[in-house]
Design goal:
The structure holds 2 protein chains of 2 kinds. Chain A is an all-beta fold. Helices cover about 0% and strands about 55% of the residues of chain A. The radius of gyration of chain A is 14 Å and the shape is globular. The N and C termini of chain A lie far apart (about 35 Å). Chain B starts with a strand and ends with a strand.
Chain lengths: ~120, ~110
């Protein structure tokens, strides 16, 4: 059973298009995240949701809009794609709060987005 | 700005030797620390977690934490070629957010 899954795994699209990436976790975790990892491999937090509520919203263009229909799902919609959006996008989840282990994050396989 | 610093490497270690990976953090209020391994083209995978000063051992891996020096390390004993990967250090800051280092690329040479 895949703990954190993402679709699609690869996404190739043209500038100006709108695309979505979906994420689902079956770990029963309360918190979910979106990260962007660029070509230099730095992992940058974009958003975090706890029980469907936004708790972290880092400085990202408002072309990026997360949506959490329930605590097991966190989707990412990107409008008007730009060349600089090309990267690997990772979804992750963690148990939530309460003890130090609550913040251990488990990652999905990633979505490699290429904008041409 | 809160930071986690790692040497980007690559760190080259002969097979069978001890690989030592280091990480420093700026937020003295950081509570817990995580080591992740990321193989090329794969997602980060949690390998160690430490929140108390001292050493924590798990198989061939030992995490070391020194809060006074704001320093975390990961030792890999009997290094294997399969340990070749990028190792990411992350600190849970005083706001309960993970602050990530840029990672150290480790190469184990047969």
């Amino acid at each position: 059973d895949t703990a954190v899954s993402q679709t699609p795994k690869y996404l190739v699209t043209q500038m100006g298009n709108d695309k979505s990436i979906k994420c689902e976790q079956n770990l029963g975790h309360d918190t979910m995240y979106w990260y962007k990892q660029d070509s230099k491999k730095f992992l940058k937090i974009m958003f975090s949701y706890n029980n469907k509520e936004l708790i972290i919203n880092e400085t990202v263009p408002n072309r990026f809009s997360p949506k959490s229909p329930d605590k097991a799902h966190l989707n990412l919609h990107i409008n008007s794609l730009e060349l600089g959006d090309s990267a690997v996008y990772f979804c992750a989840s963690s148990p939530g709060q309460g003890n130090p282990h609550s913040y251990e994050q488990y990652f999905g396989p990633g979505t490699r987005l290429t904008v041409t | 700005q809160k930071e986690v610093e790692q040497n980007s490497g690559p760190l080259s270690v002969p097979e069978g030797a001890i690989a030592s990976l280091n990480c420093t953090y700026s937020d003295r209020g950081s509570q817990s620390f995580f080591w992740y391994r990321q193989y090329s083209g794969k997602s980060p995978e949690l390998i160690m977690f430490i929140y108390s000063n001292g050493d924590k051992e798990d198989g061939r891996f030992t995490a070391q934490l020194n809060k006074a020096s704001q320093y975390v390390s990961l030792l890999i004993r009997d290094s294997q070629p399969s340990d070749s990967a990028t190792y990411l250090c992350a600190a849970l800051d005083s706001n309960y957010q993970l602050i990530w280092g840029a990672g150290t690329k480790l190469i184990i040479k047969p």
